[in-house]
Amino acid sequence: MQRLRFDPDLCLKCETVDCIMRCQYIHLEQDRAKEEHDRLVRGRMSSILHECVTCYACEEYCPHGNHPFYLIVERQEALSVHPVPVPIEKSQVVMMGPRGKIRPREVQAPVINMCFFGMMKGGIRGRIFEGVSTIGGPDIFCNLMFLHFARNSTIKERLPVMIGNIMKFHLEPSGVHELICYHDECYGTYTSWAPAFGIEVPFKPVHLFDFMLKRMLDLKDEIRPLGFTVAYQRPCSSRLCPETDSLVDDLFALIGVQRPKRRYEYGRALCCAGVIDAAQRFDLAEENRRKNVEDMRAAGAQYAVFNCPFCFWTLAEPVMKAGMVPIMMSDLCLMAFGQ
Ligand code: SF4
Ligand code: SF4
To answer: What's the gap in Å between 63 CA and the centre of ligand 1?
Structure first.
């Protein structure tokens, strides 16, 4: 079984405990944070395991890259701490499982992996996406969402099979070596989670925003600046690949929209709260959504732009009620092409 690449001594010697001190959901004094985190590192029960809302943010907060969130998930699973009620957890494992129905299909580069979001294929259109092939479905699903369910074991079991399917049924027969990740979480899987657990990724993962930016730079002369003020909802998986956050600024600059100064932005971004709802912590989820949407509105946003479809489904209604327009990044960028 794949083991997490993590150095316990680094944590035990760490005085700052940034992973917990910067957490927006766990409020502990420094000494207590150190004590609780040390317990967790030593494999003992810790309040952190119960209070964590699985927002992924501490993966970004640790200045040493020592994988605090992946460790939390390991410990939750080992100590049977279930962040989401067990019946929901078990039904998700079945519902999102591989079907074994994948068939060989030749594709042509550039190839976009839609992950489990085949229903969003309509957004892969227009000038930016001309000539792309798409693949997707439960047999090539990254399964990283099981981090929210304390089930690293499910990811460990399924991800190598999924990677094998991508190669065998799509990329290898077509001679394609790069895979554009429609879902930010797939990109986080291939560039962060897989290396952290020693799983080899035989293709080059490309972030969707990176692909879009390069395409749009080639088509720069056709872009008409939009002139809107747009708040960005940063997804949890972006904490696994924080280097991609600057791509949002680059895309915004290209299409002529402003990213307003917000309280809950960049490292302090708030989770969309869909997973907090799944954990049945409804008051916390509601408060989180209220703070987030009020912050967008107070910053003067006219649009709220989304990277992850799950964040979109969770926040679209409160965003609209607050008088803003929810939109996926691909659609916002296509507007700049008049599409
Ligand atoms: S995970 Fe990082 S920030 Fe947290 S205690 Fe360990 S070394 Fe320190
Ligand atoms: S995943 Fe989020 S809620 Fe959990 S400890 Fe890390 S920062 Fe806090």
So the answer is: 7
Of 212, 245, 267, the residue at which a domain comes to its end is: 212
Note the pLDDT tens digit of each residue in 267-315.
Answer: 999 999 999 999 999 999 999 999 999 999 999 999 999 999 999 999 9
210 Cα: distance to centroid of ligand 2 (angstroms): 27
Is there a domain that residue 84 lies in?
Answer: no
Ligand nearest to the CA of 72: 2
pLDDT over 90 (residue 118): no
Whether residue 181 is found in the same domain as residue 234: no
- The CA distance from 229 to 56, in Å, is 27
Candidate from 21, 26, 71 with most ligand 2 atoms within 8 A of CB, to mutate: 26
Residue type, 154: T
Last residue of a domain, one of 165, 192, 212: 212
Reported as a pLDDT band with limits 50, 70 and 90, residue 103 is: confident
* Tokens at 44, concatenated: 């003992």
Split into its structural domains, the chain has a count of: 3
pLDDT at 229: 98
Which CATH number is 146's domain given? Answer: 3.40.50
Is 171 contained in some domain?
Answer: yes
